[in-house]
Write a structure and sequence with these properties.
about 500 residues; alpha/beta; Phosphorylase Kinase, domain 1; Serine Threonine Protein Phosphatase 5, Tetratricopeptide repeat; 3 domains; five-stranded mixed sheet; three-stranded mixed sheet; 19 helices; 8 strands; about 45% helix; about 10% strand; globular; non-specific serine/threonine protein kinase; TPR_BSK1_C
Length: about 500
């Protein structure tokens, strides 16, 4: 993968440290803190040292998701002793108080655990504020869970990720660092041995007052929206969203997931790639734990210790090293980035004319195999009227009469006698043509619900998100569509 494709590819492993290749065979404490003498102490680096390590903060060494446009850029670097590091360079206005920055960095730098990608130093010169952490060579949870190339993450590995993260949170909580900012799949990193680690960067306050919770509002703990404060219970809520990621293989809003759970429609929540590879009891238990973490009232959520207690008995294949479960050969380089398809490219550019041309050419062939009720119903006047609405809609779509198309597709969809993801896709584009971006996003998401493995649904979501100014989410959704399309082409 190119240097700019992974938001926080920071997994760190200093060459001189003596780590064991299989954490499960170790005699570590239960929360994974291990022998703290194995880790380097905390150091203060000079700006010249870090400039040299990163080749002058070269754009070629950027590993944060959005490159030089990100407010806080992360670089890969190499020290004089050949130790690989990750260097986070903050926006100049993020830490105006140098003393506060140093106090925070030193406090986080006192933590040492095999479950963390540990903070090993910092730099504070003039207006510059930089953090230095161990470098993790095997990408992020987002990459392995949402954008995998050769194989989906195995159930046993997903359970291990959940446990190791819970152990990391328990360790931090027990040492007075219970707050973690914006816990998400980019903050989970994989080390040399394929084992998951929690990035230390989220333990630092990430704003002037330390109250910022920089995440998509759909995934933000409800109490933060009410009070603007991050609490230990907020972190547990975010852990619940990660459990949803592990269950579904997708980044779905908690509200949607909870609707599925309450409706006892758990099968729609589970990753189809896992079918037949886990027991229903284990799946039910993980769903139950996620539901507890996502309770609206913070007091109703479990604490970090309870998470560890609940997850430990679920562990499978504990004797198998992480890199085997992950399918990561030792010393393997990063996979190549998958190029965008013509539709993905058009959606990334918001080229609505090109999107229309591709959808018109594709027609309804992707509706094949999608279950619909038409063949099970008698031919009635209502069905005929619904099909006539579809014909009118398709004719208007072909003629680029998008207002008429919206009206006719709506009548077809509301008729309810035939399920068509393509109809939602076409109406989505019509909405985009009329600057109705929220409606467009809703249709693209509905197309995904009907046809979960359909790349077109993800590409159109990306176009709608881009129209709404949600660039980060748009890029991630584009990657989802690209991976699905690559998988479809292989099959």
């Amino acid at each position: 993968m190119g240097a700019r494709c992974s938001k926080f590819s920071l997994c760190f492993l200093p060459c001189q440290l003596k780590f064991k290749s299989n954490l499960n065979d170790s005699s570590d404490t239960e929360n994974g803190s291990g022998n703290e003498d194995w880790f380097p102490g905390f150091s203060e680096f000079s700006l010249d040292q870090l400039r040299a390590a990163t080749s002058g903060f070269s754009s070629e060494n950027i590993v944060s998701e959005h490159g030089e446009k990100a407010p806080n850029v992360v670089y890969k670097g190499k020290l004089d002793d050949d130790q690989w590091i990750a260097v986070k360079r903050f926006n100049r206005s993020a830490w105006p108080d140098a003393r506060q920055f140093m106090e925070e960095a030193r406090a986080v730098g006192q933590l040492r655990s095999e479950r963390l990608a540990n903070l090993i130093g910092c730099c504070c010169e003039g207006d510059e504020r930089l953090l230095v952490a161990e470098f993790m060579p095997n990408e992020t949870l987002s990459k392995h869970l949402f954008h995998w190339d050769t194989q989906p993450m195995k159930w046993a590995m997903r359970l291990r990720v959940a446990l190791y993260l819970a152990q990391a949170l328990e360790y931090c909580s027990g040492r007075g660092r219970a707050l973690y900012h914006d816990l998400n799949a980019y903050r989970v990193l994989f080390d040399k041995y394929g084992s998951p680690r929690l990035s230390c960067f989220g333990l630092m306050k990430n704003s002037r007052d330390g109250k910022s919770y920089s995440t998509n509002l759909a995934f933000t703990p409800p109490e933060y929206l009410r009070t603007g404060r991050v609490t230990p219970e907020s972190v547990v809520y975010s852990f619940g969203t990660l459990l949803l990621d592990l269950l579904s293989g997708k980044h779905i809003p908690p509200s949607h997931a909870l609707d599925l759970i309450r409706g006892k429609n758990i099968s729609m929540l589970m990753d189809s790639c896992l079918e037949g590879h886990f027991s229903n009891d284990d799946g039910t238990e993980l769903v139950r734990l996620a539901s507890r973490c996502l309770q609206y009232e913070p007091r109703d959520r479990p604490n970090a210790k309870s998470l560890v207690t609940a997850l430990a008995p679920l562990q499978k294949e504990t004797d198998v090293p992480s890199h085997i479960l992950m399918g990561i050969p030792q010393g393997n380089g990063p996979p190549k980035e998958i190029p965008l398809s013509p539709l993905g490219e058009a959606c990334s550019r918001l080229d609505l004319t090109a999107i229309h041309e591709i959808l018109e050419t594709t027609g309804y062939k992707d509706d094949e195999g999608v279950a619909n009720e038409l063949s099970f119903q008698m031919w009635t006047n209502q069905i005929q009227e619904t099909l006539n609405a579809k014909k009118r809609a398709d004719s208007a779509f072909r003629a680029k009469d998008y207002v008429t198309a919206i009206d006719s597709y709506t009548k077809f969809i509301d008729g309810g006698t035939m399920i068509s993801p393509t109809a939602f896709a076409r109406r989505c584009l019509c909405y985009l043509m009329n600057d109705m971006t929220q409606e467009a996003l809703g249709d693209a998401m509905q197309a995904q619900v009907i046809h979960p493995e359909w790349p077109t649904a993800f590409y159109l979501q990306a176009a709608a998100l881009k129209s709404l100014g949600m660039e980060n989410d748009a890029q991630e959704t584009l990657k989802d569509g690209t991976c699905l399309e690559a998988r479809r082409n292989r099959d």
